[in-house]
Design brief:
about 375 residues, three-stranded parallel sheet, about 20% strand, disordered N terminus
Length: about 375
């Protein structure tokens, strides 16, 4: 049955008045990520400056994807994100003037790129050195000043990195709360993952939710006998506080190398059931911008790794769609990706992209038929 207006994707697909234009996708299978089902033979109308009709027979429409951990390195990377169906990214540490300029150029349609959410320079502590994308805070006073200054410059959140002293970490938490900004990122050695979550840290990146005593698990070594209980307790605390994890599993291929990655991934696969039982949400991030990770394509690899570790294809899809927008407090958007296969059958089908719709603009991939409407 055809339907002219749908809000079934976890995104909003709006009907458009004829004089404003619309992209109409006929006979498409809509992947309802909220309900976890496929709704066949739908008619989807998306507001656009264009007027175009697409035959979606045999294809699957999903919300566009979010990469929740990137470091935007170039204009070319922005276009690659969109080409791979990633129309939103969270930049986790970069030069703020560059990010502000890129956002303006994307919003003015001068550049093709995803929606940018960013924190500007990350906050770190000694012994690390300051750079254009990293600010060093030595104590609570410097931490509070840094948060106030970044808030005044228009960041969306505060990124915490390594080396932050304990008093400075809690000062960041207080100052971010006062500025009504979330803070997210690493868990410095000065605090535990549970303490970071209790302090209001919005998300924990990489494997930094793992208590330090349990890190030998990720190095192929034997961890203390109490690690499972410690992990369970930590995850329960994170679940109670609503602190999601952004594990960036695929990035560790680059960080630790191909020989050390298999034991690390096996350790992640071993604790995945604990994470799922706890109810802690997962975000999908890649750390693009570090160690030659490929923009866009790497997110599809991350989704496959999540499924290999034990999440269902639907749960992996949640990690890159509605988990991301709900985490960011964003209303559903109108970006979507047309696929040549059902991602609920095989998560690898997220990479079989027939077309991307970003900001009402249609970009054709291979294998999609359509016609422009005069």
């Amino acid at each position: 049955m055809a339907r002219p207006i749908l809000t079934l994707l976890g995104i909003a697909l709006f009907a458009a008045c004829a004089h404003r234009g619309a992209i109409v996708i006929e006979h498409v299978n809509v992947v309802d990520v909220a309900a976890g089902i496929v709704r066949p033979d739908q008619r989807v109308v998306i507001a656009s400056r264009e007027r175009r009709v697409i035959d979606g027979s045999g294809k699957f429409l999903i919300p566009a994807l979010w990469d929740m951990h990137v470091h935007v390195a170039s204009e070319a990377a922005l276009a690659e994100f969109v080409r791979w169906g990633v129309t939103g990214v969270r930049d986790m540490g970069n030069e703020l003037p560059d990010l502000l300029a890129l956002r303006r150029r994307i919003e003015s349609r001068e550049l093709v790129g995803p929606r940018l959410i960013f924190g500007g320079p990350q906050l770190a502590g000694p012994p690390y050195a300051a750079t254009a994308s990293r600010r060093i805070v030595n104590d609570a006073a410097e931490a509070e000043a840094a948060v106030r200054e970044l808030a005044a410059q228009g960041v969306d959140f505060i990124k915490v990195w390594e080396g932050v002293p304990r008093d400075a970490f809690f000062a960041i938490a207080r100052a971010a709360r006062a500025q009504r900004l979330p803070f997210a990122g690493h868990v410095p050695d000065s605090v535990s993952p549970a303490e970071a979550s209790d302090a209001g840290q919005k998300s924990i990146e990489h494997m930094e939710f793992v208590p330090p005593r349990c890190l030998p698990l990720f190095e192929g070594r034997t961890a203390p006998a109490d690690c499972d209980a410690l992990l369970e307790t930590t995850l329960q605390r994170l679940a109670r506080n609503g602190t999601p994890l952004d594990p960036t599993v695929g990035s560790f291929r680059n960080f630790v190398g191909p020989e050390r990655f298999p034991p690390l991934f096996e350790a992640f696969r071993r604790i995945a059931p604990m994470i799922r039982r706890s109810g802690v949400r997962i975000l999908a991030g890649t750390d693009v911008g570090s160690m030659n990770i490929v923009p866009g394509k790497s997110l599809h690899d991350e989704l496959r790794l999540l499924v290999d570790a034990g999440w269902t294809p639907l749960e992996a899809l949640h990690a890159a769609t509605i988990n991301a927008t709900e985490f960011l407090g964003l209303p559903p958007g109108d970006d979507a990706v047309l696929l040549d296969g059902n991602p609920l059958d095989d998560i690898a089908n997220t990479a079989r992209i027939a077309a991307v719709i970003r900001g009402g603009t249609f970009s054709r991939g291979g294998g999609v038929a359509g016609r422009d409407v005069p």
